[in-house]
Design brief:
Distance between the termini: 44 Å
Radius of gyration: 17 Å
Order of helices and strands: HHEEHHHHH
Shape: globular
Number of strands: 2
Number of domains: 1
Strand order of the largest sheet: 1-2
Length: 142
């Protein structure tokens, strides 16, 4: 079995340790986002908050700071396992708040979500959403 091969084991251990180095802890994410849910916009106590992955781990996302946002438990439960673009298409207030408060999300993720919303006909153009982020992100903007 390949999994038992010594070099495969070394690669798996190395990959796991690299993934841990890229992750940030929950409280750091909450503090970075000012304890505000990026979907409803409400500032809450840490106990009422959770971390949400913009690109889900099951779809190739990681735990890096550019792929996670603060979400209250209620919004994260409402979003469930749905793709972010589907959730934002269904809830206009969450869409507005996300593009206003998700300041630290990787530009490629913001662009992908905005383009999917444009493809679905939710917004006229993806730039409509991403332009609002440009002023906040400076040189990181897509």
């Amino acid at each position: 079995m390949i999994k038992d091969h010594p070099t495969t084991l070394i690669r798996e251990i190395h990959r796991r340790s690299d993934d841990r180095q890229n992750r940030v802890n929950r409280f750091e994410i909450f503090a970075r986002d000012e304890f505000r849910c990026v979907y409803c916009g409400v500032v809450q106590e840490p106990e009422a908050l959770s971390v949400d992955h913009v690109q889900p781990r099951m779809r190739g996302g990681d735990g890096s700071h550019g792929n996670v946002v603060t979400a209250c438990r209620a919004c994260n439960t409402r979003k469930g396992g749905h793709a972010l673009s589907r959730f934002l298409a269904e809830f206009p207030e969450a869409r507005r708040n996300f593009f206003q408060f998700a300041r630290y999300v990787w530009p490629r993720h913001l662009t992908a979500v905005a383009e999917e919303l444009a493809r679905r006909g939710v917004v006229l153009a993806s730039t409509e959403l991403v332009e609002g982020i440009r002023g906040l992100r400076g040189s990181e903007a897509p």
